[in-house]
Structures are given as C-alpha cells and as structure tokens.
Specification:
The chain contains 22 helices and seven strands. The chain is an alpha/beta fold. A five-stranded parallel beta sheet has the order 2-3-4-1-5, with helices on both faces. Strands 6-7 form a two-stranded parallel sheet. Helix 15 packs antiparallel against helix 16.
C-alpha cells in the first residue's frame, strides 16, 4: 500500500513532524515527570477518573505540557480545542466558550480548551475565562513557561490545579530519541545514530524533547539523502548547523573550561572570558550552572570593589530562569563582561573566612546586654536592651557602643582594598571604627 492508498488521517499523521508523531499517547508513555505520574497522583486521577478539573501546566519548553493536555483530552473523551495566547483575543475566547456551552447543552459533550503560553494573555483576557471555568462549561488546560504566581491572575489560579513540570534529563530525552529511531510511527529503524552524534544531540537539546526530535529528523533526512544508514557527528552538524565543541559536561573539559572562565574574569581578560562563555554555550552547558558561578564570583573576587557586580550577576541568573536560551546568552555575556572589567577585591571572602575561623576556634562569647532582645516580659529585669543607644538619633548616625562579645572587642575582619569603590570605604572605615569603639581616628590609624 502506498502513502496515497492510506486513509486521509493516516496520511496527515505520516507527514506530521517527528516530534508530533512521537508524542506520547497515554500517561504510561510519558517520559520524566515521575512526581506527577505516580499512582494516585492528581493528574492520574484526573485522567483515569474522568474528573472535570482545570489544569495549569508550568514548565520549560519541550517538557511535555502540550502532550499532557492532549492526553487529558483523549483519555476523557472530551472535545478538544487548542489556541495560542500569541494570536488569540477575548473575542476568540468567548466564541470557544459559547461553542462549548452549546455542545454541553445539546450533546452533553464537555470541551477541553488548551491555551498555550497563557502568560501572554492580559488580565482582561484571563478574566474572560473565569465564568466558564467556574461553571465547568470548559475544562481549561493552560501551559506557561513563566511563574504562574506572577503571570496568571489569582482567581484563575485558585480555580485550577497547578502542575509543575521539571526539565527533562539527558536520559529522558535519550529514551525518546531511541523510541523515535525504532518505532514504526517514528523512523522505523531506517537509520541508526553513532554514539558521539547521539551524545551531542542530547547536549544541544538541553532537556527540550521537541528540539531533540526535530534535530534527529533533520539529521536522518540528511543521512538518507546521502545514501547513509547511520547518522554520524558530521551529518548531525550539517543538518542542524551546530558545531560539536570538544567538551564533556561530566568530564575534565567541564571543569577545565569553567575554571578557565572564572580565572579569565578574575584576571580581567574580558576577551578570554567571553570566549570560554561561548564554548560552554555551544557545547550545551546548563546556563543555570554558568549563572551560579557568576553570582559566586561577583562576591568572592569583586565584592565591594564594585557593588554593582553582584546585582549584574544576580540579574543575569534571573534572566536565565525567565527567558532561557538562546536569548539569555546575551544576559550571560553582559554579566561576564561586567565582572571581567570590574576592579577586583577578595576582602569580603577573607572577612567571612576569618570570622568563621574565630567562631570555630571557640571565640563566640555572650552577646552584650544592651544588644539582647527586650521584647518580652521580664527582659528589663535581666538588664537586656536597657542601655542600647539608637544610632540614627545621633548627628553622625554612629554612636560609641559595644557590639561584639567581650572576647572579640577590637578584632577587625574586613580589610578593604585600596582601589575601586573600596578606596572610599578604606578611607571611611578607620573613622567609623573609632567612633564606635570610642577611640580617635588617629589612634585607629596608628594601630592599623
């Protein structure tokens, strides 16, 4: 039987993208998300018990949000309507709700409305769903890649079951790739894939099953067109236009490249730092790992020499969470350049290291009485918080007062560098310590 002898629905399915053909059809075929699929879980009860309940699926791209929506619809024999928040408005939503109400009244058939990227709906658009969700005229299944507590109105969130999907692991994506290679609805063993090509495919997918299957389909087409029965690394690169950087996220290269990245930032070589960043991104390194290292470095090697460094690194880390790749590469590059060009100081890390060393050595005396909590009955009788002086009431905002335990009076931990923003701190600190400890600035300078 040729393709043209098949029924229309089968021909359409045969010509669908590989990612669509390989979409799991039941909960048991779903890969990953074990926390949502265990026996007795809300999702499994919803599907197997035919309970009308609206869902909000929150997770990264390619983690299975659309798949779960389709399974909910097919397993419960309901009418399925899909729309994207990118191009739908209030008028479209109201039309779907009216059709759903008509179907429910005439045939008793309930409607599942799947809205992709619902975070792009305005508050008004989301509010237009409330009545139909409340009366269960529709079963809403909404997907979002952004935190629903920030992007979805509270009334809609309270009327829905929130399911948090986790990123797929490399093993999860690998299982889907192997299925696609062997199953008839996939590639049906038309090609195989070399180990190094498979490893690179999993790296570049970064937990996105759709991305991995799209790349696999392109590589298989390239291989078959060239008369090959195997996808090698060169074929995969040619198909997806992504070079395989010599980099193993679990091996020496992982540690060598991130080490070179941080040391280049520490050494203020901005060009080398950007190079190593590019190598990690092209090799499929987890951008969250890179962002975490930038946040640590901002305090460890820069600190108060440039107080904005930590803000830049933290903002880049938040951008990675909110936006993801490929756009977040720009945020990571901005933070990398900022930190590489910033003046360097390890005064912050040395301060906490020295303080912890003293505590571990047993130098942790009693808190001075004036600093103790006085917000309970009987505190005054114990002398707690009785002679505390409130610094903002003084002209300079600083008063003479003992803050550390007796054993640590006069112990200095923070020693600011003489460059960057810490230069001004280094000039001000002796005077500050002198006022607090009741000694003159000149005496402090003589002691230091």
């Amino acid at each position: 039987m040729t393709l043209f002898d098949q029924p229309a629905d089968e021909r359409i399915e045969a010509n669908a993208p590989l990612a669509a053909r390989m979409r799991p059809r039941t909960l048991d075929e779903v890969v990953g998300q074990a926390h949502l699929l265990s026996a007795g879980s809300p999702l499994r009860r919803l599907v197997e018990g035919d309970q009308p309940m609206s869902l909000i699926l929150y997770g990264p791209p390619g983690s299975g949000k659309t798949t779960l929506a389709l399974i909910v619809s097919s397993a419960t024999n309901r009418r399925f309507v899909q729309m994207s928040a990118l191009n739908a408005g209030v008028k479209d939503v109201r039309a779907v709700i009216e059709d759903a109400r008509r179907e429910l009244n005439y045939s008793g058939s309930q409607t599942v409305l799947f809205i992709d990227e619902i975070h792009r709906f305005s508050k008004t658009q989301q509010d237009s769903l409330l009545g139909a969700v409340e009366t269960r005229t529709i079963t809403l299944v909404a997907a979002t890649t952004e935190n629903p507590f920030f992007s979805i109105v509270s009334p809609l969130l309270s009327r829905s079951l929130l399911l948090n999907l986790q990123p797929l692991t490399a093993e999860d994506v690998g299982e889907l790739v192997d299925r696609a290679l062997h199953e008839e609805r996939g590639l049906g063993d038309a090609v195989t894939i070399d180990d190094d090509a498979r490893a690179h495919l999993l790296r570049m997918s970064d937990g996105d099953a759709r991305r991995a299957l799209t790349a696999l389909e392109a590589a298989a087409g390239t291989a078959i067109a060239a008369g090959q029965d195997s996808i090698d690394l060169a074929t995969l690169e040619k198909a997806v236009d992504t070079a395989a950087v010599r980099y193993d996220r679990d091996g020496d290269q992982h540690y060598d490249v991130i080490s070179a990245f941080i040391k280049s930032i520490r050494g203020s070589d901005v060009d080398a730092a950007v190079h190593y960043l590019a190598r990690m991104l092209e090799a499929g390194e987890d951008p969250r790992f890179i962002a975490r290292r930038l946040v640590v470095h901002a305090s460890e090697d820069i600190g108060l020499a440039d107080p904005t460094a930590l803000l830049a690194a933290t903002a880049a880390a938040q951008a990675v969470q909110l936006i993801g790749l490929p756009e977040a590469r720009i945020n990571l590059a901005q933070a990398t350049i900022h930190l590489a060009l910033a003046p360097k100081s390890n005064a912050v890390v040395r301060a906490i290291d020295e303080a912890q060393a003293d505590v571990k050595a047993g130098q942790a005396g009693a808190v001075p009485p004036a600093l103790r909590d006085g917000h309970y009955q009987g505190a005054a009788k114990l002398g707690h918080a009785q002679r505390y002086r409130y610094p903002p009431d003084s002209r300079e905002g600083v008063v003479e007062q003992q803050y550390p335990p007796d054993e640590l009076v006069g112990r200095d931990y923070y020693h600011p560098a003489g460059h960057g923003a810490e230069r001004a701190v280094a000039e001000r600190l002796p005077k500050l310590r002198g006022l607090i400890r009741g000694r003159s600035e000149s005496a402090e300078n003589r002691e230091s």
